[in-house]
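ingest -> fold -> write
write: protein_1
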Amino acid sequence: MQPAGSASRSSSLRKRLLRAVTAADREAPGPRSARSLRPVIAFCCSLLGILYLGHLFWAPLAPRPPWRTPLAVQTQNSQQGTADPYAASKVVNIVLLAPRCCDDSRYTDLAEQDCHSRAVRLCHGLAPSACFSAATATASCERLWQPRGYKISYAAAVRRAVPYLQRLGWVNLKVYRDISESDLSLKGVPEDSPLRAGACNVDALREATEAALQKADVIITESGNFKFLFPVYRTQRFIILDTSDTATLRVKLTREHGDLDDPRILAVLKPQVLVPASLNNAQIFEYTSHLAWLPGASSQPQYTGRRSPPASPRVLDRTIAALSHIYRYKYPYDCGGRMEHIRYAGFFAQNFTSWRPPPLRTRKIDLAFFGKVDSGLYAKAEKQVLAQHRKAAIEALTAMQAIHPELHILPGDKFFPDYADYVATLWDVKIFVSPYGAGEWSHKDFEAMMCGCLVMKPRAGAFTTYPAVFQPGLTVVDVDVGWANLEHNSLDMLANLDRAQQMADKAALRLLEYSDMHRYAADLDTLLTVLTGDQQRSDAPNATAAPGTRT
């Protein structure tokens, strides 16, 4: 096949030569001069003809990189099974159990785009929340609202990628709604909501969902529901969506509910995973690794220990960072979203006209930490260790302010009257110090990155997320879990703001790149292809090189 444009380029070259020759003939003084040019013309035309014929012969044989292959050729090759060596694996029947109360009949892309456009047009990034409430106070926007709660946003994002995956060849991948009593979306629906009698109605869903599960080859489900399905559907394979806040592998199964080493369990997908994965078998505190890293953990040995039994290499290899919180910000109307996140529509807009955080060099606040020091969300043992960790961060920042009065540092348990005040403060922060919470990663990390801050995270190299935005020295600043080198690392970045700006920009751009649903579907396509294919292949996935986490 001749590449598109090759013939036109050769024809254009031939025309330019002929025009030049014709012009020379016109300018020739007489017949004698014209006759003297005829051998040259004949030679040029012959040479051009030989080159053109050679090009027609060799062009189909020349190697062509895949990104230069025309889309029609890619589609044709895919249909013939030549471009995709794993095309056979895409015919498996896969059922994704989405949150029950996520009512797709209420949701349309056109209405979502209209609401986003109104928000971007009428409200800039630092506008009060009332502006966004008024901008989206239309019938079409209000119809979009789905159950709240970030725990359901992960499965909702996978469900959102299904149409893209179907276009990539996964024609037997279908979405059904969760009918279990452990379904997390119920918590986000008020008792008097019409969703309770509509989308949340188990009786209306049960027959179709159970029939689909019986026919499925692979079931993708949230970890809370998995333990009930696994003993019932004994011929199906499973992909578990573990939505726990920590990077530690928290899925613990009994003999009755199955073993993670069971070959029927293809993978455990998480928002973040430990690096290296063997850290899952190291010391833990209250079932999590990151709490065991903190200085306060040693004072409570009764809560420390190790995973028993230890996770096998196969299990660790198939614990993969492939869920992300970024879609909750991009699609605030969808399941698990929040109204406050509509203001980030400017970040995801192509022109960024309503979202222009200033460069680090012009910001007034050098370092900042604001968040809850003591939270009732954590268990008693967790609460004490985390409170010590966060108080130590405040003490380190306070001491640094005393030593360096020329710096502007905001340490403390700070609250904001309006979400806009919180975002406005982030727009004025150079380095955002982010201690641990229930997990290594915090919601504020993505928010600070989208606001252009450089994030400082304790032991950032010991875990990775989807996408990989916690890379010390590339996208974030690493710091000791006890804050011993906070001053040194902060001063180093403040003295090299150009480098700090590059790191902050790289983190924000990576979030933007991976927020694209085409990109997410492509990564899920790669992952599903490997998982549903030959399980003995050497290219099995692993936690440190999962789709979407490669640099």
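write: protein_2
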Amino acid sequence: DPEHVKTIWPSSQNCPNCRDSDGDLITLNPLQKWNQNELLAYIVSVYGGDSIQRIPESNSDTSDPEEDLVDDIMSGSLNDRDIIRERLRKYCSGL
């Protein structure tokens, strides 16, 4: 649709570290590789942690998924570990 041009979000200007950098990469498009940690941190900075619902992994190979997620978020713009843990606990207690 020429009147509604589709663009990939976030743009490289908004999140320069979201693409093609070291870390846990995921390919959503054959031409684009995303850094999951940076992408998550950027999305949290835009929408806030309370707006993001955690989807449990079916094959988790980590010993503590909560701690891993906190570490991922901490690599971004959120900087208070106790607040992040409290948000996760509140969300998980409602499951």
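write: annotation protein_2
The chain has one domain: 25-93.
The CA atoms of residues 50 and 87 lie 7 Å apart.
pipeline exit 0
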